[in-house]
Amino acid sequence: MSVEYNEIEETMSVDDPSEITETVAVPRQGWGVLHLFAKAPRSGADKEGTIALCKRLESSGYQVITFAVLGHKADIGFMVIGPDLWKLREFQGELSSLGYDFSYSYFSITEVSEYASSLSEARKKPRLYPKLPPEGKMAICFYPMSKARGERNNWYALSYDERERLMFEHGTSGRKFSERVTQLVTGSTGLDDYEWGVTLFAERPDDLKEVVYTMRYDEASTLYGIFGPFYTGLIAPPAEVLDLI
């Protein structure tokens, strides 16, 4: 799944990306996105320290989305978004210093799909510089995915026109959920174990299940989709999430 279901209208209130001094830690286009999934420290989470850490990064214009993870794979999830990858890495290190034991992580960069390159700049901007989570959508699901490169089904051996056709079909299925689900697809080829990270935001948890199930029947997914682990949670302020662990 690599077509957004609906547009995110606003962007974060940070410096204009074109004015950021280019360094090896800042993407030329887009922002870094770091998903961190952690077990709570055995001695208990440092609630005040965690809240202060999140507020400190947010005061720099970055976004920190915290959520309570459902299931035993993790206790708490952090989705951190912003331009300077050093800032993201520092946040990770400080969480580790607070005693969090990471059980999974994923790094990617916001992007505009090659099949959406004809979009206006106004429509590209929310994909590259989004503001999250969308209002009213507090159920979250993250999973990584790649396209198949097998002997029988090889996405990269298809012509551009055929890939575009398949993705148009895929996007048409997704747009049926535009009022209930917002998707952010981020690129990770050469950066992590899969080629994309997919983050879904929904009004209710069963919306997440329904949209993924529906889109599995699209040819782009049925023949070419390779999926990693799924992490599902409920978004809330850090204090509320920490009260649960």
TrEMBL record:
Q: Which EC number(s) does the record attach to this protein?
A: 1.3.98.5
Pathway connected to this protein: Porphyrin-containing compound metabolism
Q: Could you tell me which PANTHER family the record lists for this protein?
A: COPROHEME DECARBOXYLASE (PTHR36843:SF1), HEME-DEPENDENT PEROXIDASE YWFI-RELATED (PTHR36843)
The name on file for this protein is Coproheme decarboxylase
UniProt cofactor(s): Fe-coproporphyrin III
Q: Does the keyword Zinc apply?
A: no
UniProt keyword annotations, A-Z: Heme, Iron, Metal-binding
Task: Name its species.
Answer: Ferrithrix thermotolerans DSM 19514
User: How would you classify this enzyme at the top EC level?
Assistant: oxidoreductase
